[in-house]
Amino acid sequence: DEALYGKMPERRFFMKYTKEDILRIADEENVSFIRLQFTDILGSLKNVAITRSQLEKALDNKCMFDGSSIEGFVRIEESDMYLHPDYDTFVIFPWRTSENHKVARLICDVYCSDGTPFEGDPRYVLRRAIKKAADMGYSCNVGPECEFFLFHIDENGKPTTQTHDQGGYFDLGPVDRGENCRRDICLALEEMGFEIEASHHEVAEAQHEIDFKYDEVLAAADNVMTFKYVVKSIAQAHGLHATFMPKPIYGISGSGMHTNISLFSAGENAFCDESDSLNLSKTAYSFIAGVLEHIRPMTLVLNPLVNSYKRLVPGYEAPVYVAWSAQNRSPLIRIPSARIEIRSPDPACNPYLEMASCLAAGLDGIERDLPVPAPTDANIYTMTPEERLEAGVHSLPKSLEDATKLFAASPFMKEVLGSHVYNKYLEAKREEWRSYRARVSQWEVDRYLVKY
Fold first, then answer.
1. By the 8 A CB rule, do 351 and 366 touch?
2. 445 CB-contact burial (10 Å; exposed 0-12 / middle 13-18 / buried 19+)
3. Closest Cα to residue 436, out of 310, 298, 297, 253?
4. CA separation for the pair 43, 424 (Å, rounded)
5. Could you point out which of 136, 249, 377, 446 has its C-alpha 20 to 30 Å from the C-alpha of 13?
6. How far apart are the C-alpha atoms of 182 and 180, rounded to whole Å?
7. How far apart are CA 134 and CA 164, in angstroms?
8. Which of 253, 379, 259, 378 is nearest to 318 (CA)?
């Protein structure tokens, strides 16, 4: 709608800072410790911590680290890498403060020793997709919706899947036992500049959602990484463990990361056309067509874990079929209002690679002027296999193995991610599947040990 998506995107959650601003604020706020954060290809947040005395050196892009120890980065003989802080991401953590020892962070781009951007940096992958959009005359807004679970920690400090929470969708205390923790997460995020639009208990017991305002696509990916870090930190302070694992408990709903996307051109929403029955432009329809065409090989990035495919099963609200609709929530793509909502991603994904893939797929649809297939307005879950086949509705991959095979056969994904990330990511996922196949699960023990 116009209130949400009617203006040219701006970076909302972080101030525009200069080097001098950061040095001054660090002194005025007694910041004595700074975390220089970056993300590996699998979406794990990493950091190099420095003291205030090294901050100016870091802001001059002179902070070096050993990239050979980071998943999917470089070989030992190429290990020297540099962190280039994005000044606009400077923020002071509200929960790690004392009068004299405040902690701040900067999100960084990764560079090679020769001064070129490192092609294995997920942020660089997204920057490339953003440049392609800009070359086509577009900028991109993204609003992610991250769900998570809050569980107890045992007497040894290890996370469990146990909870006293008996809440359901939109419930409140005393049934919602995570309400106080969720409130403190919201307050911490607001202190860091997030605009929190809503927070509530989700469908499953111990499951929660906090919605924050959309942003331009690079900032949106940064925000997801920041959000996950804040959620885990505040949960720990409450004696709880927060997890973004897609399906931690059998028989209940899993956690998704619905991703809302819109494009802008010349300051106007390029997805909006009021003369259309759905208020969608030809650009929007072609974008949808591009996402639908590439979604199956993209799934390895959007749903990166063995566990992700335990969520993508019928009966738990997660999309299973490749289709779109403006009227119901069973298809993979929904049309809330002059934007598209991709419903299959889960919060275990690397948001930089996920958003780069979604954006690139849509741009490919626009570039090739792809026609959108007919919408599927019926409940897909109640359709017979024959009805789905007749409607041209295909399934998402059913396992990490299936997704890996589709990804491996996709020249599009190799182009989007670049050869380095594509090959390293594929190698890591193949190894994850090999490891999973060799393990004996509790389900097998319960089912077979006595019987055979």
1. no
2. exposed
3. 310
4. 13
5. 136
6. 5
7. 49
8. 253
- What distance in Å separates the CA atoms of residue 424 and residue 195, rounded to the nearest whole number? 36
Comparing 294 with 70, the larger pLDDT belongs to: 294
Task: Take residue 411 and report the two structure tokens written for it.
Answer: 């020249």
pLDDT-derived band at 365 (thresholds 50, 70, 90) equals very high
Does residue 59 contact residue 23 with C-beta atoms inside 8 Å?
yes
User: Can you give the pTM of this predicted structure?
Assistant: 0.91
pLDDT tens figures, 184-193? 999 999 999 9
Q: What is the pLDDT of residue 175?
A: 47
* Closest to 72 measured CA to CA, from 115, 27, 124: 124
Residue 74: is its pLDDT beyond 60? no
Q: Which stretch of DSSP H or E encloses residue 358?
A: helix 351-367
Residues 355 and 301: their CA atoms lie apart, in Å, by 10
- Euclidean distance between CA atoms 377 and 375, whole angstroms: 6
% of the chain exceeding 70 in pLDDT: 90
Do residues 185 and 177 lie in contact, with contact meaning Cβ atoms separated by under 8 Å?
no
50 sits in which H/E element: strand 45-51
Beta-ladder partners of 175: none
Q: What is the pLDDT of residues 38-59, one digit of tens each?
A: 999 999 999 899 999 999 999 9
Q: Which helix (H) or strand (E) holds 57?
A: helix 55-59
Burial (0-12, 13-18, 19+ Cβ within 10 Å), 178: buried
Per-chain mean pLDDT for the chain = 88
